[in-house]
Specification:
The protein is mostly helical. It is built from six helices and two strands; from the N terminus they run βααβαααα.
């Protein structure tokens, strides 16, 4: 017999709401920082304001590499907390299911840690490539300190790459388990099912480049 479920807004805890506020604050701060970085580059290019190259380079690097990882990490914390509470609420309210918005926010096909793991793997891969190329030149020039720093960075990048790969596999298994649990608990309209396949990073099928 098909289950008849009522769609309700499950009340999430203060921890989830707090994580949501952190996500909004991170988004706002990131937007301000990106706007300032772009403005500094444009102002310097047109000669309106003289901006030191070091500041420009640092702001561009932070915008391209640091902010996306931080935002996706904060989003993962919020999504994971809500995911745990929605699955817990299902045991207490078996004839109800979360709203479509709550499903998309916290129970999409993609595990919340998958985008973060992919971003770390890409960045650590780039770091491994760049440091691996630079290290032999530093050693050939006899730059011991630079070689030590580059070697340490290379080791850290390799460890991060291995850990990210392991995290991707664990998240994929957990995502499959979440989809199975969700299917057992709630029957969903096909339109909602399609929305749940959307990846946070926008590849469109719940997967990622290179998966």
């Amino acid at each position: 017999m098909e289950k008849t479920l009522d769609t309700v807004e499950f009340p999430l805890s203060a921890r989830v709401r707090g994580a949501r506020r952190w996500l909004v604050a991170t988004s706002a701060a990131g937007a301000v920082f990106v706007g300032a970085a772009v403005a500094s580059v444009v102002a310097d290019a047109f000669g309106w304001v003289s901006v030191p190259r070091a500041i420009q380079a640092g702001s561009v690097l932070v915008t391209l590499f640091v902010l996306p990882v931080v935002w996706v990490g904060v989003h993962a914390v919020w999504a994971l907390r809500g995911r745990a509470e929605l699955f817990l609420a299902a045991g207490k309210h078996p004839r109800q299911r979360p709203t479509d918005r709550q499903m998309v926010d916290h129970l999409r096909d993609e595990h919340p840690l998958t985008p973060l793991s992919w971003m770390v793997s890409v960045l650590s891969g780039l770091g491994t490539l760049c440091l691996g190329v630079a290290l032999p030149y530093a050693l050939a020039d006899g730059a011991v300190l630079a070689g030590a720093l580059l070697g340490t960075g290379l080791a850290v990048s390799l460890v991060a790459l291995v850990l990210a790969g392991s995290s991707i596999r664990r998240a994929a298994r957990q995502g499959s388990e979440d989809r199975r649990r969700r299917a057992e608990l709630w029957s969903l309209p096909s339109a909602v099912e399609r929305r749940l396949t959307n990846s946070l990073l926008g590849t469109g099928d719940g997967g990622h480049l290179g998966a």
